[in-house]
Design brief:
The structure is a homodimer. By secondary structure, chain A is an alpha+beta fold. In chain A, about 50% of the residues lie in helices and about 25% in strands. Chain A is built from 9 helices and 8 strands. In chain A, a hairpin with a 2-residue loop joins strand 4 and strand 5. Chain A binds a DNA duplex through helix 9.
Chain lengths: ~190, ~190
Amino acid sequence: MQHLLTQINNYHPLSAAAQAALQNCFEKITLSRNDYLLGEGKVCKHLYFLEKGALRGFYNLDGKEITHWFGFENDFVTSFHSFITGEPAVENIQLLEGSILWAISKEQLTELFNLHHEIERLMRIAYEKYYIRLEERFVNAQFKTAKERYENLIQQTLHILERVPLGCIASYLGISQETLSRIRSQF
Amino acid sequence: MQHLLTQINNYHPLSAAAQAALQNCFEKITLSRNDYLLGEGKVCKHLYFLEKGALRGFYNLDGKEITHWFGFENDFVTSFHSFITGEPAVENIQLLEGSILWAISKEQLTELFNLHHEIERLMRIAYEKYYIRLEERFVNAQFKTAKERYENLIQQTLHILERVPLGCIASYLGISQETLSRIRSQF
DNA sequence: CTCGGTTTTTGATATTTGTCAAAAACTTTG
DNA sequence: CAAAGTTTTTGACAAATATCAAAAACCGAG
């Protein structure tokens, strides 16, 4: 729990009162490799903080699993669309490694927003960071070649390559596994 | 100005005090077709509300202009990366039509966040909406074919097609203008 | 209306990436 | 450590999309 609070303070420093309030609301979850944190069709009512481990978001398309994001240590994860809109998720969230997570419900979080302006600020700032991160992925997806996207991955998020099966990485990069394999053989 | 406030209340209802504070900070800007709201290399220090008109965000790549987003009536627009991080923008924002905008500086907005919790909440909610919107574009860019992306455009944002030159739309969809032309000829 | 410039379309061809099938390499487990 | 399963690579070929060049359509100013 201390780790969670330290990381949150890194995002945006919080008063003791706000920290105590958060501490009361987050619940610890321990999951094993291949467990599901969320199944498609369910409404995702929680925001999670990933203390240790790795997971992926994926959806099914024509019988294939399309992994479109990963979560690692210190990431906030959720099915954002479902969490924000309250609609059923189109994606699954599955553990890639045994992991420790902390969960807070949307209801509790909304209540904390009312009680502590600074927690809402924290969230506003978190959204800013995540927005920028997504924007960069979007530009890569739309305007870079498969090879450039792979080089980008090596330079900026090498840890993904070291912890995730190539099949997941291929769809994360928006290419087939065979193409990824051929690109890799050029290095 | 009344229009701006009405739209903002649509996003999230505000108290009279918060509305008055906003009213004090927003400045009206009128620009003509082809004018620039932002040039690459400059830090974007303002958030804009587009009351009337249309504009595009684009950057230069190998001598080509890559349009990656459009703004229309009632959109909040800025170069998010630059606005959030304070770094120079890599993109240009150019008017596609004569437009009426309202500007607020980041400095003023930050001050308003301190004075009115509810304005920060408005912004948090706005980020949520923009995050989801971007997420959808990302999934389209990465996992749909050119034809599917065009069909999507017709179904969901037909107004773009009616107000923007095809050259801009092609790069918005992440395809060459020739390919877009060929896809269009199939309809 | 018409000239000059811009935008859009069409044609021919090249490049990139995907698909299917099989082989090879790696992992797990009894 | 060997069998069975899984993941990754390789090969042959097909499909999607890009590029370059030229023609056609459109558009605004005089």
